[in-house]
Amino acid sequence: MNESRIKNMTNLFIAIICAIAIVVSSLIIVNGLSEFKEGNNRIIVTGSAKQKITSDLIVWTGSFSSMSPSLKDAYTELEVDKAKVLEYLTKEGVPTDKIVFSSINTYTNYIILPSGQYTSDIDYYELNQTVTISSEEIDKITEISRQVTELINEGIEFQSNAPQYMYTKIADLKVTMLAEATKDARKRAEMISQNAGNELGELKYADMGIIQITPLYSNEISDYGMNDTYSLEKEITAIVHCEFKIK
Question: Which terminus of the chain faces fewer neighbouring Cβ atoms within 10 Å, N or C?
Fold first, then answer.
């Protein structure tokens, strides 16, 4: 009798476990189908917008140097060269408040023996200074950057670097381009959903990608974004990733 009762209780326990397992399995299947349906109830697209921009600021730097076994003489020579550089730039119409001279860099060069070994004896001092101009007068400063090496004829060891061209309204432009890129993304999403026989719903999520500022007509891009500063005419490209609901 006891054995029969134990057997019946065991069978009942097994039946309860099986019933619970069936219910849990059903819930998992239902939830899985629901997530699958939700996953197909949306569409993710990428939109883009491009715009040509013209730099509105130029930043140019040049450098000049002097050398002498005497530090004092090297400094005096550099000061004379600085005055000549300043005079040249002001004659070319650059306002003095746009001309910035850096601090002087001093390098000590030691005598090297024929064996290539350095000694503690000073051979000469080399002093270096840079001049920087930031201006909205792009054409004028560009021309100066090309002609300023004329100072070499006056005995100045002058080196002119390539100008950098900037666009100062990027922050405002990004807002406009985000809107344009989002419109482009919606058009793409509408085309895809219509071809699939669906109706496009509301925008659920938008994420702006990396801004690319490249030379005009360039196809070069970077995963980290580009910011070309060596071209006057540029093209800015904005990318946006959008997620739309499908009705």
Answer: N
Together in a domain, 126 and 66: yes
Q: What are phi and psi of 115, to 5 degrees?
A: -75, -10
**pTM for the full predicted model:** 0.72
64-120 tens-digit pLDDT = 999 999 999 999 999 999 999 999 999 999 999 999 999 999 999 999 999 889 999
| Domain extent for 134 | 59-163
Q: Are residues 63 and 155 in the same domain?
A: yes
Express each pLDDT in 2-38 by its tens digit.
555 555 555 555 555 544 444 444 433 333 322 323 4
Of 61, 58, 60, residue with least CA distance to 130? 61
Q: Which two tokens stand for residue 220?
A: 């070069």
Across-strand partners of 117? none
